[in-house]
Design brief:
Layout (H helix, E strand, L loop, with lengths): L1 E4 L2 E3 L5 E7 L8 E7 L6 E6 L5 E3 L7 E6 L4 E6 L8 E8 L10 E2 L3 E5 L2
Parallel strand pairs: 2-11
Antiparallel strand pairs: 1-3, 3-8, 4-5, 4-9, 5-6, 7-8, 9-10, 9-11
């Protein structure tokens, strides 16, 4: 019930907006997180949106990425600015009732590729 969109190829310094459409879940009660897995790397948490509208970011993206929640359209967005080649990864959104963004979240999208390259 999670579908990512908005990935693609972008030059260093560019921007992308990722979307995660959530269906068949009581959206307002769920913690939604964005994760990524780069080439040869472990999957890592990127950003997290809690039901109380609190947010949390990995140090590597703090100040560049912004997660937001559209409660009308049951969609979570992640605006990514000043992208760097090391941001290249498959990005996943995930959801869970528990207030934690961790690798063991209950629901996952299939992922979408973001490539940052000149």
């Amino acid at each position: 019930p999670l579908v990512e969109s908005g990935g693609g190829l972008v030059r260093p310094g560019g921007s992308l907006l990722l979307s995660c459409a959530v269906s068949r879940l009581p959206f307002v009660h769920y913690t939604i997180g964005w994760f990524r897995q780069g080439p040869g790397k472990r999957r890592e948490m990127v950003s997290c949106s809690y039901p109380d509208d609190d947010t949390h970011y990995a140090d590597s993206v703090e100040g560049r990425f912004t997660i937001s929640r559209d409660k009308v359209n049951n969609t979570v967005y992640m605006q990514m600015n000043n992208l760097k080649p090391e941001d290249t990864a498959v990005y996943y959104c995930a959801a869970d009732l528990a207030p934690l963004c961790v690798d063991g979240m209950n629901f996952w999208g299939k992922g979408i590729l973001v490539t940052v390259s000149s």
